[in-house]
Amino acid sequence: MTGQGPWDAGAPCEPWGGAAETHSAVVYFAGDRAYKLKRPVSLGFLDFSTRKARAAACTREVELNRRFAPDVYLGTAEVRGPDGQVCDHLVVMRRMPSARRLSALVTSGEPVAVPLRQVARMIAGHHARAARGPQIDEQGSRDAVRGRWADSLTQSRQVRQRMTAGEPLAPALDEMERLAMRFLAGREPLFEARIGEGRIVDGHGDLLADDVFCLQDGPRILDCLDFDDRLRWVDGLDDAAFLAMDLERLGAPELAGQFLADYAEDAADPAPAALRHHYVAYRALVRLKVACLRAVQGDPAAAMQARRLAELAAGHLRAGTVTLVLAGGLPATGKTALADAVAGQLGLSVLSSDRIRKELAGLPPAASAAAGFGEGIYTPEWTRRTYAELLRRAAGLLARGESVIADASFTAAWQRTAAAQAASEASADLVQLRCTASQDLAARRMSTRAGVPSDADEAIARRMEETADPWPDATVIDTERGGTAGLPRECVQAAAEAIRPHGSGHAWHPERPCILPD
Hints:
disordered C terminus; 6-stranded mixed beta sheet; about 15% strand; single chain; 19 helices; Phosphorylase Kinase, domain 1; 5-stranded parallel beta sheet; Rossmann fold; 3 domains; Aminoglycoside 3'-phosphotransferase, Chain: A, domain 2; alpha/beta; disordered N terminus
């Protein structure tokens, strides 16, 4: 609103109530108004170096942000010098109470569950009605996401070289690049599916806790990304992940996880945990890049913030590694119980060879197909067909970003070789677990189980043991202490640590809780 009136560039700042700075703007406060002045900078990813560019940016900022807070963004104003000539431009806003910033409330320990739930609903609602189309969809493709990673990594490295304490970031940036690119390499079907589901939207693009204000009549969300439309055209989950990342940066990982869970519910988005981790990591890299810029501009705390953000990003990339887990062993050694328990704890998908074999034979899972060793539906041909189908299904899930635990004996080397090939083709990690138990305990377990897909008895278990190939690459999980009633907590924990040695991010991503026997 140009009619707001010119602002005197020669007036002192103090009567206007102070100022706040970012890497790209200065905001001056005066009574119930805030005035944002774009910095005349060119940072690679944005260019405000000319007055014309800053004028256009101010107009665009008001237009875009009125989608989220129409009563806050009042318009634009001109800055005139002593000669009366226009020398710059401002965004004019209704001033928000700084004490009601979401970031301030979180750091002071104030309860924010209700407003944060409202923010999740607001963002999901905006995404539901946001602009879509082929041009926007293109920015949600696997290659576009990879390009944004590459650009942000390059820019971060360039700025890091100008930092006096930038060297500790180099290994972290290298690890981020390796993990992110590996995830993207095998996940093209996941990103194609996201596009097909209409998940790519014209979003906010810069959702930070500093820019969310929790007022009595509801939250106000400010300061969306306005300098490059392509960076705002993102997967809705990517958009929401920015705030989840920022909440974790502020020391509130539980709030971060709950916010993403609320957003996923409101958006009806069953995205795999790996994609949530991936987008949170990417947003930490974006924030890291800004912290590096602030460090170069003289902010003494920014270098430490950059290092913490690097740790946050790497941690989520590790936790989101797509993995194929083999839960193998002889009959009744506890592999099915282990697979189910670990899947619940880590959020993995379970595929069972016993169930698949019965399905291929046209039988219900619990129907008996008992036969001698290597006979009936347990001939070598049937077994190869069963493992081929199991790994085919696993490959499809891995490509969609779902980690899989395959519950099968895997006693033959060729079965494990085929599994390793499937993991490699999907750019997924392979973790091999071999369950063990004494023959006496296994026999007791077989004698007490009922209504299960397995048809193995003691005689078949002995023959399988005689013909089993060595399995030196497996982590051994001794289920002996579990008896016939269940698995001890230590077994499940040992398996979880083998699968996610750096942690699962489970506290951050509260889904499918697992209750284990003491």
